From TrEMBL:
InterPro entries: Helicase_ATP-bd, Helicase_C-like, Helicase_SWF/SNF/SWI_bac, P-loop_NTPase, SNF2-like_sf, SNF2/RAD54-like_C, SNF2_N, Znf_SWIM. Residues 930-1092 form the Helicase C-terminal domain. Residues 642-809 form the Helicase ATP-binding domain. SUPFAM superfamilies: P-loop containing nucleoside triphosphate hydrolases. This is Superfamily II DNA/RNA helicases, SNF2 family. The keyword Transferase does not apply. Keywords: ATP-binding, Helicase, Hydrolase, Metal-binding, Nucleotide-binding, Zinc, Zinc-finger. Residues 60-99 form the SWIM-type domain.
Length: 1096
């Protein structure tokens, strides 16, 4: 056994193998090439400096096992090394050089120990080999030609090829030829033809044919392997001499041959033909056989039909016919070809309709010879059309149409018969098609209730067809015919919707909305808006007239009616009152449609909107102690908080992770303390902060650090101790508790009232049905704020839950929110619903991204690092995946829903197998490729002086990693759900300050609320369904205070569910920044079809 090219091909992606082969063929791009023996494994180790095309150098190393024909390990300094799907192109290049040298040196005696002579031998062999290849390549570069031969057998077309320069050789197997081209291999066809199969070797014209061959071979191989019946899938593909041509391939191939000559083989005879882009001139001859019979003859020609092009072979020329030629000539020629004849016989009676319908179209494209026959008498008379319209009742329109030829008149409802040879079928069909676009024929009916209509066509109880006929059909009828309209018909009109005006004013803490229009019928306005909402183009008024719904003022009224949930009674009255917090939404709607309708805002309304929009210019002074600490964007955030509180609203501070949301809230609380101290009424506002238990001490520490004058009280201890602490709440400025403690103590808060209620990591209440969500909503507070870097992690209902806490009812009852906003946005990408939600929520959300406000923050580089599972690991994974796939395929929808929990457990099992099968199987000793990759990453990073955060969702996986780190003598810290709150802070400070290189963190326990800027590498050991949660964890390091570029590695087991998770994360970004932030995906949301897809 030995390392072969096939070993290298299997170890690299197709793209990297091709790039590596290109590098290998240009020997100057591989320098300092050396082979040595690895002292640990006693196997060959290859090192070299490899140059890219631009001269960039990469240090490359590969260890191999010749006996097992395996690549043991590889290393390269190129940026693509960790992203490559296998070994990178530079590793490919030095392996190919190694194989080449080994092959050359095999013919020399091993006993030659003289180093000088050995070097000379290697140099001259290499030089000789290089000259040979270069000469071979340069001799033929741009000279190799491909000569196609087109075959027609029965109804099938195929093509084979010859290759060469002056002398051409038949390509006996196009599949093998394609492989030679893909691998740029050297091959000898005969005594005078040997060359590397590179595109540059071929002439420019032949390169086009080469691309055609490669594409068709790829399609052929795919069809053979995956499309044919499964019983043939695993058979070896036989050599392919002739390439079969589909209709599409016929067009592609012949278009490549335009302007060139081509060998064409038909019935064992080969001829040279030209391929031209023009219509052939065919001779069409009409002769009289006797007084009552005529013979119509056309030149002999061969038809080749492509997918979209009509080709005709005549007199050794193949013509690409124009579209007009195809339309007029193809039916005729195809019919003759089907009947295997060049002529047809026409009777005197047949000639008249044939001349008007067919022959006149044929003679436009042929050399038409009448042979003395006078056809003037066969010219059809010009048709004159008349259309009669009536409106006999409210729901019915009727129509009759006639064609008049001189003195004869025909109803268009009567089909043309062969005897009516002079009727103009083309024009009659044109008029009839126009009518039947709106009307349908009157059918005989025995139903006594069926309407009696004086006409051949009818619109019966179909308002949409009636409107379209009046709007589009009627004007078209006037272009085609003389139109006669009854008196009833004249009374039906289409009216343009009159413009409306909206006024808005502030009174007694409410908004008053006035809708005015001089011509809009208020009693029908609700129906009009309902029709507009359903995207209808019209509304039928009680008068029977149609109102055209394309006036943009209606879009404003419809949006306000939906967004404010106005009742039909409100709309009919023309005046209504709504809560003050709807001000920004109303202003946004009116502003975005400013040119569509008139609006009036009173001065109080304008002042309210101005306060909300001009936060940066507001008069809220930053406390003196905080001025040197806060950045400009944080000062803006503080003033926004003050403005929202002053106006009596609530809001979400949704800045990107690491931008200092905590500091902005502390500034607000300090401002409140200072303002209260100036009051003379002795009032003392108390605020409540609710956060995850892991952050309680962090909040206390931050307040102590930035605003030590604020008196804080931590609600911790036993139930009795917490109750006692709450009795002293009025003595403090800020109370801090956790979601868990609040749920237990909620009854103790009934008598307490807070100035500010602040919930941190607000995604904790993303499910509005949980006790945590119900608890925070029951607290008595004047103003409520929510802090979160991810207001939407998985679904829009999470945003609704936060707003229900901030301002109950603002986003409507959940059932209405779900049906009118969530489902249209998520399922249908409804732009109107998306815009409405944006206009509703954006005034109450302050969100800044790091890329927008921290220009000095270092880059964040993200890489997916792929690990090929060990053989034993792969077997276990495939067995479990196949079992789950079969189980899913056997389930109907109801069974699938019932077994969802079990399926999620099986998915988790697959993810654990990707991490390490030892998580599931106690006695497993088959190794984990991902664990080995992870340890290698850590070792390389540690050697480079980096510090690493390693996240996993499985604490048991952290146990395994911890054990390996001990074996490797690598120091580390660990933080998971069992870590006490006080200890978390000490661990974070220690990691940021000392030289311990690794911090193992459970994603759930440490993904939020930690500042770990001491790290510059983040490793996600296992991908989580929710991209937002992963990003949140990453931003423990990529945040304010970070001075180094942060590199993020996502470890992925190749060809597993983990790759599909990455794809799903990308595909599920439907709400990405459209509303707020990235949308994630949870396993519980996956459909049966999506689950089957990720298991494939």
């Amino acid at each position: 056994m030995a390392i072969t090219r096939m070993t290298v091909i299997k170890a690299a992606s197709d793209a990297d193998y091709r790039k590596g082969q290109d590098i290998f063929l240009i020997d100057k791009r591989i320098r300092n090439f050396e082979t040595d023996i690895n002292t640990l494994t006693h196997t060959p180790m290859i090192t070299a400096t490899v140059l890219d095309a631009d001269g960039t150098e990469h240090e490359t190393q590969v260890s191999i096992d010749e006996e097992e024909s395996q690549i043991i390990g590889s290393l390269c300094s190129c940026p693509d090394f960790y992203q490559a799907q296998g070994i990178c192109c530079h590793c490919v290049a030095i392996l190919l050089k190694y194989i080449s040298r080994r092959h050359i040196q095999a013919s020399f005696p091993a006993k030659n120990q003289n180093r000088i002579s050995q070097n000379l031998i290697e140099t001259y062999i290499q030089q000789s080999s290089g000259i040979h290849y270069t000469a071979e390549s340069s001799d033929v570069k741009g000279q190799i030609e491909l000569e196609p031969i087109l075959h027609k057998q029965y109804k099938k077309l195929s093509v084979d090829f010859k290759v060469g320069t002056h002398k051409k050789y038949v390509i006996k197997d196009l599949l093998e030829f394609a492989r030679l081209v893909r691998e740029h291999e050297l091959f000898q066809y005969g005594k005078n033809l040997k060359f590397f199969h590179e595109p540059e070797a071929f002439t420019p014209e032949s390169r086009k044919l080469l691309s055609f061959i490669m594409q068709r071979i790829e399609e052929y191989e795919y069809h053979f392997r995956y499309v044919q019946d499964s019983t043939y899938r695993f058979q070896t593909i036989k050599p392919l001499r002739e390439l079969p041509l589909s209709p599409t391939a016929i067009d592609t191939f012949l278009n490549l041959m335009l302007g060139r000559t081509l060998q064409f083989r038909l019935a064992d005879q080969t001829q040279t033909i030209r391929v031209l882009d023009c219509d052939p001139l065919l001779t069409l001859s009409l002769k009289s056989e006797d007084n009552s019979t005529y013979k119509l003859t056309i030149d002999n020609c061969l038809i080749l039909s492509g997918a979209s092009t009509f080709w005709i072979l005549k007199d050794k020329t193949l013509y690409r016919c124009s579209e007009n030629f195809r339309k007029d000539m193809q039916p005729y020629l195809t019919e003759l070809n089907r009947q295997k004849t060049q002529e047809m016989i026409l009777s005197e009676k047949q000639l008249r309709p044939f001349y008007g319908s067919v022959l006149k179209r044929l003679q436009a494209h042929t050399d038409f010879q009448t042979n003395g026959i006078d056809l003037s008498g066969y010219e059809p008379p010009e048709a004159h059309f008349s259309i009669y319209l009536d409106h006999p009742s409210d729901q019915i329109f009727s129509c009759s149409a006639y064609a008049q030829y001189n003195e004869e008149t025909f109803s268009l409802a009567t089909p043309i018969s062969p005897e009516d040879g002079f009727r103009d079928a083309t024009m009659e069909n044109k008029v009839l098609t126009a009518i039947q676009s709106y009307f349908h024929p009157v059918m005989a009916s025995e139903d006594e209730k069926a309407p009696e209509v004086d006409g051949d066509f009818i619109i019966d109880h179909d308002d949409t067809a009636s409107f379209l006929f009046l709007e589009q059909g009627l004007p078209h009828f006037y272009e085609l015919a003389e139109v006669f309209i009854s008196s009833n018909m004249k009374r039906v009109r289409i009216l343009s919707a009159p413009k409306a005006a909206v006024g808005v004013s502030v009174s007694h803490g409410l908004l008053t909305l006035d809708i005015r229009s001089d011509h809009l019928p208020y009693d029908e306005l609700a129906g009009i808006l309902n029709s507009y909402r359903r995207r209808q183009k019209y509304y039928k008024l009680k008068s029977g007239e149609f109102l055209k719904l394309e006036n943009n003022s209606l879009s404003v009224l419809s949006e306000l009616a939906d967004g404010l949930r106005l009742s039909e009674k409100d709309i009919a009255n023309g005046q209504m009152t709504v809560p003050l917090y709807r001000a920004s939404y109303i202003d946004a709607v009116l502003t975005s449609h400013n040119s569509d309708m008139q609006s009036h805002r009173d001065r109080y309304f304008k002042s309210l909107i101005r306060d909300m929009k001009s936060v940066a210019d507001s008069d809220y002074e930053v406390p003196d102690a905080m001025k040197p600490i806060l950045r400009d964007y944080q000062k803006t955030g503080y003033r926004w908080l003050c403005t929202i509180a002053h106006l009596g609203f609530g809001g979400i501070l949704a800045d990107d992770m690491g931008l200092g949301k905590t500091l902005q809230i502390i500034t607000l609380l300090e401002h409140t303390r200072l303002t209260a101290a100036e009051r003379t009424d002795g009032g003392h506002p108390v605020s409540l902060i609710i956060c995850p238990s892991s952050l309680v001490y962090n909040w206390d520490s931050e307040i102590e650090h930035f605003a030590p004058a604020l008196k804080t009280l931590l609600i911790t201890g036993t139930a009795q101790e917490r109750q006692d602490l709450l009795t002293h709440a009025a003595d403090y400025d800020v109370l801090i508790t956790s979601y868990d403690m609040l749920k237990r103590d909620i009854t103790y808060y009934d008598a307490l009232h807070f100035q500010y209620q602040i919930i941190d990591e607000a995604q904790y209440i993303k499910n509005h049905r949980t006790q945590a969500a119900r608890s925070v909503c029951s607290i008595h507070s004047v103003t409520r704020f929510a802090l979160t870097g991810t207001p939407i992690e998985n679904r829009l209902s999470e945003l609704w839950s936060i707003f229900e806490y901030l301002m109950p009812g603002y986003l409507y009852p959940y059932a209405h929110f779900r049906s009118e906003l969530e489902q249209p946005i998520v399922e249908s990408k409804d732009p109107i619903a998306t815009t409405r939600l944006q206009q509703l929520v954006r005034p109450f959300i302050m969100r800044r991204l790091k890329t927008d406000v921290l220009k000095e923050l270092p880059d964040k580089l993200e890489h997916a690092v792929y690990a090929q599972m060990t053989e034993e690991q792969q077997k276990l994974y495939v067995a479990n995946a196949v079992q789950l796939q079969k189980e899913l395929e056997s389930q109907n929808d109801s069974m699938f829903k019932a077994s969802k929990i079990q399926i999620l457990a099986e998915l988790t099992k697959l993810r654990q197998l990707c991490c390490d099968p030892a998580l599931i199987y106690k006695n497993y000793h088959g190794g984990s490729a991902k664990l080995d990759t992870c340890i290698q990453l850590i070792q390389n990073a540690r050697a480079g002086g980096h510090k690493i955060l390693l996240f996993s969702q499985f604490t048991s996986m952290l146990d395994i990693i911890e054990h390996r780190l001990k074996l490797e003598h690598i120091l580390y810290y660990r933080l998971d759900g069992s870590t006490k709150s006080e200890q978390r802070t000490r661990l974070v400070n220690a990691f940021n300050e000392n030289a311990i290189p690794v911090f193992l963190i459970s994603l759930k326990a440490g993904g939020t609320g930690l500042n770990l800027t001491g790290a510059d590498i983040v490793i996600h050991y296992d991908p989580w369904w929710n991209a937002a949660a992963q990003n949140q964890a990453t931003d423990r390091a990529h945040r304010i205070g970070q001075t180094h570029t942060v590199t993020v590695y996502k470890l992925i087991a190749r060809h597993t569910i983990e790759e599909k998770i990455l794809e799903l994360q990308e595909n599920k970004k439907a709400l990405s920044d459209q509303i707020l932030s990235e949308e994630g995906v949870t396993a519980s949301q996956l459909t049966k079809e999506e689950l089957l897809q990720i298991l494939q």
